[in-house]
Amino acid sequence: MMTGPLILGASSRVGQMLHHLWAAGVLDFGDDPLWQYRRDGADQADHKIIWDMCADPAPDISPTGVICLAGPTSGPDLDVNTDLALAAADVANGAPLLFASTQAVYGPQAGLLTESSPCQPGPYGAAKLAAEAILHDLPSATCLRIANIIGADALLMSAARGPVTLDRFPDGQSPKRMMIGPLVLGRALVDLLAKEQIAAPVLNLAQPGLIAMTDMLRALDHDWTWKDAPETAIPSLEIDITAVQDLIDLPCADPVDLITQARLAGWDA
């Protein structure tokens, strides 16, 4: 028996950031969460459970809610995402379930994308879309199509490795994307779990506002070089977050604050 939420995928990049924020005392889940790992490790703290979601039956626990961050983002095992969705539903057993999907389900489309927009995903987005379908008719489950999570995103991961090259469009601008910081994400997950019934199978999730990648690198004080954007590149990817904003408050995205959140969550260049 437990009285707090269960976090599946604690060893993922996002899971590690949320655990860092929780351990530092800046992210409050209410009751202490239980962090799920596939294998035991010396670097793992208390409040953990070892469970191979794809091989072992669900543990006999009763979480107040479940947040599923587990799942590969690339490679040959993308289909595992559907198995993880089934395992998450099993262990939730009727408790609120938030499943981390991705805005990648929409693919490289221009314009404002709502939850009902057609999806044109690549392999990763298609795997998450298939996982969403598994949970679609489960009343207690909501799949979150999350924008770029700063600190686990390609831009900051590239910046941590060294020089960055950005696409430059004919107007001289870099790509613009919607983003969310790890602390805002954690608080959004806590707030959504507290809702008795979300009544939405999918929700877009990001902080309001489009942010240029050049502004992120300026906030990081990190140099970049340019290359001409290919014809297939999309200048702006924008998701409609009206539905989630009807449920919870989300602060507007600001490059300096996003970098601050990433550093607070353990990201280091």
Bin the strand percentage: 15-25%
Low-pLDDT parts are none
Measured as a percent range, the helix fraction is 25-40%
CA-to-CA gap between the ends?
40 Å
Q: The biggest beta sheet, please?
A: 7 strands, parallel
Number of strands: 14
- What is the chain-wise order of helices and strands? EHEEEHEEHEEHEEHEEHEEHH
Taking all Cα atoms into account, the compactness measure Rg is 18 Å
Write the layout of secondary structure elements.
Blueprint: E1 6-8, H1 13-23, E2 34-37, E3 48-50, E4 66-68, H2 80-92, E5 97-102, E6 112-113, H3 123-135, E7 141-146, E8 148-149, H4 154-161, E9 164-168, E10 176-180, H5 182-193, E11 202-205, E12 210-212, H6 213-220, E13 224-228, E14 236-239, H7 242-245, H8 255-264
Helix pairs in contact: 2-3, 6-8
Identify the notable features of this structure and list them briefly.
alpha/beta; 20% strand; 269 residues; 7-stranded parallel β-sheet; globular; 5-stranded mixed β-sheet; 8 helices
Give a brief outline of the structure:
By secondary structure, the protein is an alpha/beta fold. Helices cover 29% and strands 20% of the residues.
